[in-house]
Amino acid sequence: MDKNIYLVGFMGTGKTTVGQLLSSQLRREFVETDDLIEEKEGISISDIFSKKGEAHFRKVEKEVLKEVAQLDNLIVSCGGGIVIDSENLSILKETGIIVCLEANPSTIYERTKKYTHRPLLSVSNPIKKIKELIKMRECYYRKAHFFVDTSRLTPKEVTDKIVAILKEADDRESKKKPDC
């Protein structure tokens, strides 16, 4: 069984774009938890937040993650806040390899400012909000297996870097001596 590869990180770090490239390069199916949530709820993420609240969104997010974790050999782009729930983090660690994509706040803002479907950034000072949310989530993101800063890399460069990291980890694992 090939473990899932979970891409986590703040919005705008490239999870979707990189996930699609990884999917193609590694010949694995790509899924996005936010898309699955919208499909399950029949409304957009921003509508879920505004009509049903963040608590409802997080509940559905956990249900979707549990469903995805039953499968294997996937590339999964996870919503930016999925890691703030300890049960979600456990599921991610048990069923896959977690790669955290990172970027500096100004890069994140530049990548996300044109999108109106980012409910957490619909504030008067989005860069300040980005910094606050990253700081709040940092200890959770730190629990990932691997990290790639996407700030100054193209999506292809990020993808190549992840493939190299995974290959190195796989090589290291295969060279381990069996426990006696």
Number of strands: 5
Kindly provide the radius of gyration, computed on alpha-carbon positions and rounded to a whole number of angstroms: 16 Å
What is the number of helical segments per DSSP (H or I, 4+ residues)? Answer: 8
Biggest β-sheet: strands ordered side by side in the sheet? 2-3-1-4-5
Helical content (DSSP H or I, runs of 4+): 55-70%
Shape: globular
Short note summarizing the structure:
The chain has 180 residues and is an alpha/beta fold. It contains 8 helices and 5 strands; from the N terminus they run βαβαααβαβααβα. Helix 6 crosses helix 7.
List keywords for this structure.
180 residues; alpha/beta; Rossmann fold; five-stranded parallel beta sheet; 8 helices; 56% helix; globular
Protein architecture, described:
- By secondary structure, the chain is α/β, with parallel strands linked by helices.
- The chain has a single domain (4-168), classed as Rossmann fold.
- The protein has helices spanning 15-26, 33-41, 45-52, 54-69, 86-95, 105-112, 126-141, 155-175; strands at residues 4-8, 29-32, 74-77, 96-102, 146-149.
- The model has no long low-confidence stretch (mean pLDDT 91).
